[in-house]
TrEMBL record:
SUPFAM superfamilies in alphabetical order: FAD/NAD(P)-binding domain
Species of origin: Equus asinus
Biased composition annotated in UniProt, kind: Polar residues: 216-237
Record's protein name: Pyridine nucleotide-disulphide oxidoreductase domain 2
InterPro entries assigned to the protein according to its UniProt record, in alphabetical order: FAD/NAD-bd_sf (IPR036188)
Length: 237
């Protein structure tokens, strides 16, 4: 289709500037000539790092190439009227200390428990009134066992023990996320005292192991429901 010169100008003028270009243009007005620290990329790691730096009085700028900040944790309206999570939407690994330090709730963070947390439809033909099978898992253990027993009664029976095992693993590993890694240099070459000190990193793991009964004697009720749901951190809010 041909367009007259004036028509074309109007069309170009009306066409929206790409969102990232508009965002960058608007941000230019806020830029200072100098910063103490610059973070490239406004994913959640960059944002958290920048927030901590700024709180310490380090004058910090975050540069993001996209028009939205949040990286993989962003929810975007990709199709008008429909919002999509780009990838990362579970907060199980977000450290509680960060919630508190950055006052995330005060800034509008709301958590939603995912229940059911997993739906797996099977690629099979339904016959007559029989619909294709699927597996739906949530926080109700009895319901989960019913679901699993469609495929394997044995697995359904073992599921509470599996959950308890996974919860126990999570409880043991969780404190390590806030601990500095083992100082391998000190561990390999240090004095006996330095070696022992370097192993203190593993204290939470040892404590978790010591404070919980062996797997065989545990029942699922003994563990917080859904530290890891169905072995998947995707069960977390
Ligand atoms: C499919 C999938 C599902 C996941 N699900 C979860 C989950 O449910 N829960 C969870 O905790 N983790 C999840 N993760 C992991 C999580 O997404 C990553 O650990 C997290 O996004 C890393 O954060 P980040 O800030 O380091 O990087 P990103 O989130 O990748 O952010 C990087 C940012 O930097 C920008 N950038 C890159 N290069 C430049 C540049 N040169 N200049 C300017 N800006 C730049 C990018 O545009 C982006 O905004 C998932 C990952 C994937 C792939």
């Amino acid at each position: 289709m041909a367009a007259s010169g004036r028509g074309l100008c109007r069309a170009v003028g009306a066409s929206p500037r790409p969102a990232w270009r508009r965002a960058h243009w608007e941000a230019r007005g806020h830029l200072k000539p100098e910063y103490d620290a610059v973070v490239i990329g406004a994913g959640h790691n960059g944002l958290v790092a920048a927030a901590y730096l700024q709180r310490l009085g380090v004058n910090t700028a975050v540069f993001e190439r996209r028009h939205v900040i949040g990286g993989a944790a962003v929810t975007e309206e990709i199709i008008p009227g429909f919002k999509f999570s780009r990838a990362s939407y579970l907060l199980s690994l977000l450290r509680p200390q960060i919630y508190t330090d950055l006052e995330l709730k005060k800034h509008g963070l709301r958590l939603h428990l995912r229940n059911p947390y997993s739906f797996t439809p099977l690629l099979e033909e339904g016959t007559g009134s029989k619909v294709p099978r699927s597996l739906l898992l949530g926080t109700d253990m009895v319901e989960n066992q019913k679901q699993i027993s469609q495929f394997s009664p044995q697995d359904a029976q073992a599921f509470p023990r599996y959950e308890a095992f996974m919860n126990r693993l999570a409880l043991a590993i969780d404190p390590l996320l806030d601990t500095a890694p083992v100082d391998m240099e000190a561990f390999q070459r240090g004095s006996l005292l330095q070696r022992l000190k370097s192993l203190s990193t593993l204290k939470p793991l040892l404590q978790a192991g010591a404070s919980h009964p062996p797997l065989g004697s545990s029942s699922v009720q003994a563990w917080p429901s859904s530290v890891i749901n169905g072995g998947s951190t995707k069960g977390q809010p």
